[in-house]
Queue: 3 jobs
Job 1
Amino acid sequence: MTRRGALLFAVMCVIWGMPYLLIRVAVRELSPATLVFVRTAASAALLLPAAVARGGLRRVLERWRPVLVFAAIEIAIPWLLLSSAERRVSSSLAALLIAAVPFVGAALAVATREERFDARRLAGLAVGAAGVAAIVGLDLGHASVVAFVEIAGVVVGYAVGPFVLNRWLSELPSLGVIAASLAVTAVVYAPIAATQWPSTVPAGRVLGAVAALAVVCTALAFVLFFDLIAEAGPVRATVITYVNPAVAAILGVAILGEHFSRGMAAGFALVLVGSTLATRATRQPLAAEP
């Protein structure tokens, strides 16, 4: 990897490790739907002009059906579920559970016969499942079961989204697909957010968290991620999936004072080992952003 690629990789590991902390702060005063609307509307406003300038947006609009499916599975539903879950669980715990995305993606690839099911992959899925079970089992008594179900929905969405992108939208400009998906999600959530808009101006930390989510963790992050793919290749770029949860856990503990047990650390280690074993040979891209 080049020096520029290594720098982009390090930056992306931090940027996409931040959303869990920022979401946790924002939902203290904003409803999940309002947060999703503001985040997608602001980031779409920043990315759409760039997508138009680069061309190809018309091709994206011509494929509006799979784009709508991708927007729902990768953005609209997971972001709402994650925002809702983080009202009930810590950002650290949410991030560690989201680390299950790679091996769920591998299981999907096996189920659809996109990848060969061998002993190594079977072992990876088993180890990863044991890691998730350890994390959930150790904290089930301290958090809402509803939150775990919501995070499970996020994990499935993040795993299925890239599958849809790879199968039906891979020939389209990535920036155009993301910009259009963010825009259509904002349109869908606009009427819901209007009924849940806060009656008073949120605190400065909440406004700052929302701004960082939209500008840094969404608009800027996608541009940098595409640059990382061009610089280091898609396989190396998706390795950030394994690093983001660790960054998120560190930020949650350091800034919000969240609890991080040895059991959570052991479960996360099992998830990483399982994901590595289950995805080593796959060519399917993995979701890397909450």
Note: Residues 3-279 form one domain.
Job 2
Amino acid sequence: MKTRDTLLLATRLFLGILFLYASVDKILHPAAFSETVMNYRMLPEPLVNVFALWLPVAEFIVGILLVAGIWSKAMSRIVFAMLCMFLIAIVQSVARGIDTHCGCFTQGGEGTPISYLTVLRDVAFLAVSGLSLWIETERPTWRLFRA
């Protein structure tokens, strides 16, 4: 196995497990996650519950597909987009001085309060995702017919 393939597998498994782990508590506690989403003050109130219900399911499905290696290029793009969305939410919360917890992995008051360390952690996750996406898009694809 080449180094690129090993690195791709490692990043794909890391991100897949990360997304699976992040989704579980949100799925088990939808009301608490809805409150967390509301605390970010980014979505209109009528959309908060819909978003809070579909996001954890999307995270779970993406995590499963990444771990399984199914549609990995598409999943890498989706993970990168989702991590960008999460980073924007956290940065705007820090910038606006919103006093809330992250809601990334646990729901309720026991979660990690948002801080610059949360931003750094999410930048690191985004970097891993960017690396995975770069490796995925740089991999040669097999074509039946060459032009």
Note: Residues 143-147 have pLDDT under 50 and may be disordered.
Job 3
Amino acid sequence: MNEGEPDDPLRRAYEDARAAWPTLVTVPFELFAARAQERSPGAFGRDLYLACACGLGDAAAIGELDRLFLGVVREAVARIDRSPDFADEVRQLLRKRLLVGEEAKIRDYRGAGALAGWVRTAAVRTALNLQRAAQKWRHDAPSAAEPLAQMLDPEMALLYERHKQEVTGALERAIAGLEPEARLLLRFYYADQLTISRIAAIKGVGLATVHRRLTAATEAVLAGVRGDLSDRLQLSTGSLDSLLRGVQSQIDLSLSQLLRGA
């Protein structure tokens, strides 16, 4: 008997799955067969068919994946971080990882087990990666233990001392230009020295969300400082870059001083 004939187990699994999902795009049998684990999806042919349809970009299939399986994310990540915001961020990242682009991971599902379990495992991995990223950001953040000028090399220190007032003014203006919420997060972190976990608890959001918002706020300040100093100082591009590298490496000290009165 040739593969794909009506009595073939793989063909029967395919026909059963296609009948179970009449509103989805028709998945070619060849694609279904190529994805099937060990040439047979066993009891999970319907899950495999849905995954194949999602991999083809079918909107109805993606809607079903959202409804049936991505809903497990909140429960799956609750032991890592219970905040709804964290779960929503994990779900958003997982959805992108599974469904977007040529490397969409939904195409890796082979029907060897239930799709719900496969999605749950992917959600936990995504959540742990987000948590590690937030912790690493905190661990790698620059220390405010030493004055700025002492941490710079001699040439950079001289440059900073020469333009200290302009740098301070640029930082003040950049901070003033932030949204109040971003300014508050920076104050919590830089001036009040709160941990990301503590800020997350205060704001009722996840660690990854705090990390993302702090990073965005800090980058906005640096961008504002660069634009301000570029307009005000007559420096070569190299000198301005050197000055900004020094400011960026010790931005926590400057922010902690300025934000205490913000």
Note: The chain has two domains: 9-137, 148-259.
